[in-house]
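Q: My hope is that you can spare some time for a protein that puzzles me. Underneath my words sits a plain record pairing an amino acid chain with its backbone structure tokens. Those tokens are not coordinates but codes from a learned vocabulary of shapes. Thank you; the sequence and its tokens follow:
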Amino acid sequence: MESSKGKTSLSSSEDSKRRTVKLDSTQEAISARGEQRNRQLDEYFRRRLRKKQDKFKESLDFDTSSLEAYEQSAVKLRARLLQELGGWPPRPDQAKAKVEFLGDTGAGKLYRVNVWIVDELEMPALLLIPEEAETTPTPAVICQHGYGASPEWAMGFDTPGTSNYMNSAGHRLASAGYVVIAPQIVCSPPGGGGDRVRFDRLAKLGGHSLLGFEMFELSRVVDYLQSRPEVKSDSIGMYGISQGGMSTLFFSALEKRIKAAVCSCYFNNRWNKMLEDDHLGRASETENLTYETYLSLPEDDKFDLLAAPLWYDHILGALVCPRPFMVEIGRYDYVIYWRDAIEEYGRMSKMYELLGISDKVNSVIAEWGGHEMFFDDAKPFLDRWLR
């Protein structure tokens, strides 16, 4: 029979029979059954993922019999990483940028540059050139910001009402004689992290990833630095924090022209940071901080299959090896659980130890530090290996 609203209703006899069936349809009961299904799905997908990761680890084959053998064994894995990031477009032969002089900062002359990447695309950056570099080429450092920050922060220009977690690292490096460039990756205003999701979706439609393309953009920044007469072209390093630390780790793994790198407040146990809510929940209680997995955050770009989401950080670090690599860890960093970071660093440093080059790898735990660039140990590390 049809109701007045056109919906089928039960007859009185059908309704009477239905009510004799013992079926709990309370919100609590429905939720409990839903939770059971969710647990099964969670366990199923995790088992599949574990098997995939086990196969990934089994496929790794680093030859530590000599430095030459090691570097040769890393070639195929580096190419695989680039492929899994979506690859790079053809590289233009020319390196150039639009350059605007902004003034003298005391540490050097500051320029706003728009580095030509490809087609009509440019990457904005700030470039700081110390006076001594105008007569004698000096080493250069790419100083990479993270979420919510900007090239301006790297150069010591604060934003009112916010805390500059870069601690003017770029300006301080230029004061010490480095040419410093601070590119703007996607995660600055206006959209912050939301922009990353938007542009990663666009990239995926074309079979690429935002992270992979940003690595290409940074490679073009290196092209540009090597074209500058003030830069000692074979002494270029990188120092980045948070999302910029992620850029530093991936880019240094891919780009052998980066001669020394410092990864600040990113290096971590990638499986735990991506997936293990319970683990980070317990850590949050222990440390009186709030750690969150990417699984519970709206950062979809971290789950793009073309962003190599579960290439373990120690494996990426192994691709930086045998070049010098340093990890900064904040004891009170609310993003990266410091104990996980230390354990992962231990896995990576073993590779340097096997090759007899332990002096080229270092970690610094800032006992007072939060989510910020610590600088004091990074500066002598870069001095040692770039000068």
